[in-house]
Structures are given as structure tokens and as C-alpha cells.
Amino acid sequence: xxxxxxxxxxxxxxxEPTNIQALARLMKEEYRVLVATSGAKALEIVSGDDxxxxxxxDVKLPDIDGFEVCRRIxxxxxxxxxxxxxxxxxxxxxxxxxxxxxxxxxxxxxxxxPVLVRARVRTHMRLKQKTDLLxxxxxIDGLTDLPNRRHFEENLDRELRRCTREKLPLSVAxxxxxxxKLFNDTYGHGAGDExxxxxxxxxxxxxxxxxxxxxRYGGEEFVAVLPNTxxxxxxxxxxxxxxxxxxLRIPHExxxxxxxxxxxxxxxxxxxxxxxxxxxxxxxxxxQADGALYRAKKAGRNRVMV
Length: 306
Hints:
single chain; 5-stranded parallel β-sheet; Rossmann fold; Alpha-Beta Plaits; 5-stranded mixed β-sheet; about 45% helix; 10 strands; alpha/beta
């Protein structure tokens, strides 16, 4: 049996303790089981740190009915991926139709048959697992295993809004491997791929905090979002990025200086504490970082420009 923290999470929502106990006994060997006896508590759990993969949701609850709970789960972007199976004693195709219209994946009728309930939960847990895997793969660059451009842009937008709300600075770094086309032409595309992989690992390892994201933007370009980081702090981190790639000592006969692979970096910072009525625009911030990168290239490469 896998460790409990590795298991998928099942939330059972029912106002009858006997029903909760029966379902929990049935599921606890395969899943981490959380319970709630009201709609409000269910929504609190779903939006918390231990977000469930699937909710077994009773339609009739003492405060908010199951349909409303399901609707709120589906409408919140943070929880919309949580699967919902309705548990109901209501023998009505109309109720089932309403539940499916709200986004429920299945129905289980009371009194429930243990084998049937277990089979349906297992089926939808497996589907959730596969869906989560596909979503993760869609956010990862296949060559470097770093977040890809889509993932980076979504994260940048989210972090910009958060830093604006909390009045915190945010910086982005736009990075480009110097003379990479010449590297490919000289050493071949296989060596080029290995160079990008090594540079990606070095940049990821040089990011000092869990909240910092390094991603592959495309081709030989990498980017980083640095929340709660002002211009001075971003310059320090970018220096670490630059040194991390140079210290790989990957031979490059066209590399300047030292005939090794290097990286040029452009930085841009948004600071809501200094901006007066300035809109948050991720594209504008990236354009500013790209402009700084262009100046770093013009100034001789293997350097950081703000």
C-alpha cells in the first residue's frame, strides 16, 4: 500500500453520520478520506490546501444543497477540476439531468450498493489521474522538463495580479543563449539539445526560492518570473543565472569570452508601490525585458541589463 500522502483525496459530504461512516469504511483503504456534514464545510475543504480529487456529494444538505455546492465548485477556476459524484435518494431523472448539467460526472443512489459505489469512485479517480497527467504534460517543455511558455505566461499573469493586490514588486528575466545558432551549426543539433538541457538545469538550480519559476520560452530563450523581487534583487538573481550557465564550461569556439556557452539576460520590474494608476500588463513587462535583453546583446553578450 502506498503512503497515505501519495493517495488521491476523496471528500464525502453527507449530513447523516451513518452514511459518512459507511462510505469512509468502504474507501479508506484506497484513498485519503475527508468528510463534511454541510455544504459550507465542503466548500471550505475543497478550496483549502488538501483539495480533493473527487467529491461524493449528497444532494440534500442542511444549509446549501448539493446542486449549489457543485455549481460553486465548477465556477471557481481553482476548484473546477474537482470531480463530483452526487449521492441521492431522489429517484428522478430530472434531478440527474440537473446534476449532469452542473458538471457532475456520475450519480449514486441511496441505499447504495458498496461494490457499485467503489467501482464508480475508482473509475472516476483513474480518469482524474489521467486528466491531471495530461494537463501537467501540456505545461512542460518536452526537451528540458521545465515549465513551457504557456505555463510561464499563466503563472506570470497570476503572480502579477497577486503582487498588485499585496503591493509587492515583481521582476521578470528574459534570457537567451549567446550565439546559439553558431553552436548548432558547429557542433550539431544533438549537442544543441544537450546544451539547452544543461542550461535549463543550471538556471532552475540557480533560482533560489520555491516561488521563482524558470521556464523555456522557445528555441534558445528562457524566462523567469521572480515574485516579491525588486530591481536590485532581480539583478542579484540574474547574476546567479548568468554565472550558473557560464560555469558549465560547455565548449563553444564562437563563445565570447572564454570560448564557452554563455547567456545574456534582460530584466524588467513592476513595482505597484511606485506605479500610480498603472495597469498590470504582462505583455508590456515582457517587452521591457526583451528590450533589456537586446541591449545586453548589443553591449557584448554574457551580461545582465535592466
